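Hey,

Quick one before I head out. I ran the complex with calcium ion overnight. Inputs first:
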Amino acid sequence: MEDTKDSELKRCCSKNILIILGFSFLIAIIALIAVGMTQNKPLPENIKYGVVLDAGSSHTSIYIYAWPAEKENDTGVVRQLDECTVKGPGISKQAEYLDDLEMYMSECMEKAMHVIPQSHHQDTPVYLGATAGMRLLSAENRTQARIIMDKVTHTLNKFPFDLRGARIITGEEEGAYGWITINYLMGEFTQKSSWFNFNTDENSFETSGALDLGGASTQITFQPFLNDTYESPKNMLYFYLYGKYYSVYTHSFLCYGKDQALLQKLAKGIQGTNGILYDPCFHDGYERVMNMSDIFKTSCTQKFYMAYPFNQIKIIGAGNYDKCYASLHELFNTSFCFYSSCSFNGVYLPKLKGNFGAFSAFYYVLEFLNFTSSEVPNKDTLANILREFCSRPWNELKKQYKNIKENYLSEYCFAGTYILTLLHKGYHFTMDTWNRVHFMDKIQNSSVGWSLGYMLNLTNMIPAEQPVSRPLSNSTYVFLMVFFSLILVVVVILALLIFHKPSYIWKDIA
Ligand SMILES: O=c1[nH]cnc2c1ncn2[C@@H]1O[C@H](COP(=O)(O)OP(=O)(O)O)[C@@H](O)[C@H]1O
Ligand SMILES: [Ca+2]
């Protein structure tokens, strides 16, 4: 009797202990989850900002970037927050309006001041890079170029940011930083080698090439086959990024941006005329009068200069794609090459390798022509689009595209044909390789261009070595904490059950 009472008391006790323990563990788990969710939130991110002004030949654009300070050496973390196009022409055309530079810059710089929190203004680096327009001016009139750059620096210093320099970048830098931007945004620099692909095949880490078309220059940059890296050392750049070596080919063709190429074409076309030029690259019914001084003031057209008895020319459109293509073909001299292969004008070009991202005017023009969304984006498709587009009368086009700037609209036939000629005759993209060119404007909301790569380099955000991997993320931490707590609870309950059960069993057996 005593024994039965005793064992019932024990059973009742162990049941209560189990209930109390189970309840306590349940509360503990809820508390852990609550603490994990509320207290273990990551510290408020320390965001850094940077501003780059791309002072192009046709206009200036301002890009505002942001990135978490603690992740700055990772790839792909810098994001473009905003951008702003400065109203007016490029800075190389501002020589007569130097006193207006502050007004010229102010709208976009004020936007940057608004987008970046005031507490960060003083430590936000600002860089200005001027490209081919200033390169040309510098070659033509060094003093004037210096005056403009000094004035630009003086103007930018009036804003509350940390101006780290305004300078004219070289064509090689422009090409290289465009290549860095594309590959950074696509995460190519940190592609891991997989266990089954543990070889030294040079194609296993393929980066994308970069094709940039501006108004005054155009750049081609890519990682060629290893054997092709020795022929022309002046075209080679060597990088050590995230623990890997890259040998990159680049060339910048000054005067082959689309605006200077048009001037070259006109300067050549005028030869032997009486001042009236019937031009197949402009639409039927289109007319434009140009000053000869505007055509010949750039050094790009000097090779076609002659004394003319007229100081203006009249361009009369004669829309015809095939004739336009033939006239542009003449701008690319492919008759001599002292290397194993050349693009044009005797410039070395290794065998094309991998995919290419084509941006800036490559994209603007082909986007307008609806080629970027074409299902069969090859050379023949583009030729057919252009054949149809160039033959359309100017009046009809103007009515259809009321919202497009007349200057751009009138030049899309020329520009599209120029792009096709440059890729085909200039860089030798064939039917087979054409589909490796991808026309792009943005990758994950960041504009593709040299400016991001320029900032990454100047802020030392691309390390030579692969950054060490980070500890657990917040969500993984919470998950693991709850998971292991649950295992612990199950183990303790099981242990209690096993620890208590034998006492009845032993008793029953006895
Ligand atoms: O919406 C557009 N449609 C057509 N062309 C455009 C548009 N926006 C910009 N462009 C052209 O893109 C080119 C940009 O050149 P940029 O000013 O960057 O010169 P750069 O890189 O040679 O210094 C210019 O030829 C400009 O006219
Ligand atoms: Ca540009």
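The pocket of calcium ion (ligand 2) is lined by residues 56, 131, 214, 360 (CB under 6 Å).

Talk tomorrow,
K.
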